[in-house]
Write a structure and sequence with these properties.
The chain is an alpha+beta fold. The chain has one domain: Double-stranded beta-helix (4-Layer Sandwich). It contains six helices and 17 strands.
């Protein structure tokens, strides 16, 4: 039986002033529930953790992920039929499955991802780094009037970038982390389409500002991969973005821990904008009934 590692025995190196830490002195393949509790504490502090030199097998990767909760099945990207929750993404020379926009995983779903656990198995010789941003700081450093406005707003997220605009959800613009109790900004350029309570033009202006603000350099860190490194991050208070600047192959394997319902900093303060979802530019039917269902009307 695996024994829990003592956090005091781990070698922990902070990677930036905003978030991120590299952790050595633990074998994730041998980790147990006690280790998961300790790593959750570290994750609450650093938001994203990196474990170099792990080289997990698929079954070890899945077992480690299950220590943190239910894993999402992914039939389209699964490595094989026996492991639907384990998937592999290949990219070559900047082409292929690259998440090169800032995003929080699966925010288009009613219960988005809690944690992602990723291992890079093939690194390009140059490039292909990943950036993360701290959404606690992005919220906390907004001006007080802007924080108050955002606290009372909701936003529509959908999977249009993946050809599935019908896969959508409405979430608070500001969410409260269920563990830390801290507020964080919860909009991103990849999945977030509009602010529900604002007109189209107002929504465009505010979303552009918030998504650019969220990726301000002082909120971010950049990680250069080595093969066999495992990363885990909290999607409830971070965003990430892959730099699509590499040549050669880049292969990652991942499991995704699902999924809590984002808790709003405060209830929506205004009704949806009256003509917000009647524009012909939307790919699906008008969203009035969807909005009512989301709000329990």
């Amino acid at each position: 039986m695996a024994t829990a590692h003592d956090l005091n025995e781990l070698d922990i190196t902070r990677l930036s002033g905003s978030l991120g830490a590299e952790v050595r002195g633990i074998s994730l393949a041998k980790a147990g529930p006690g280790d998961a509790d300790r790593l959750q504490s570290l994750l609450a502090e650093h938001l994203v953790l990196f474990f170099p030199g792990q080289h997990l097998t698929p079954d070890e990767h899945i077992a480690f992920g299950r220590l943190f909760g239910e894993l999402e099945a992914h039939p389209n990207l699964a490595l094989d039929a026996e492991r639907p929750e384990f998937f592999e993404l290949h990219a070559h020379g900047g082409a292929g499955a690259i998440a090169d926009e800032w995003h929080s995983d699966l925010s288009c779903q009613p219960n988005p991802s809690v944690l992602a656990i990723l291992q890079i198995t093939t690194c390009p010789p140059v490039g292909g780094d990943t950036l993360w941003a701290n959404m606690y700081k992005a919220y906390e450093e907004l001006s007080p009037p802007m924080r108050e406005l955002c606290d009372g707003l909701t936003a529509l997220h959908d999977a249009s970038p993946h050809g599935n605009p019908e896969r959508k959800a409405i979430h608070p613009v500001v969410r409260v982390h269920p563990v830390t109790g801290r507020r964080s900004l919860f909009v991103n350029e990849h999945f977030t389409r509009r602010i529900v309570e604002l007109s189209h033009d107002e929504s465009e202006v505010l979303l552009r500002h918030l998504t650019q603000w969220a990726s301000s350099m002082r909120f971010t860190m950049r990680y250069h991969w080595t093969e066999g490194t495992v990363a885990m991050w909290d999607n409830r208070c971070t965003q990430h973005n892959v730099l699509n600047d590499f040549e050669g192959d880049r292969v990652i394997q991942r499991v995704t821990v699902m999924g809590d319902e984002p808790k709003a900093a405060s209830p929506p303060r205004w009704e949806p904008f009256s003509t917000a979802f009647s524009a012909a530019s939307w790919h699906d039917k008008p969203l009035r009934s969807f909005l009512k269902a989301q709000r329990g009307a």
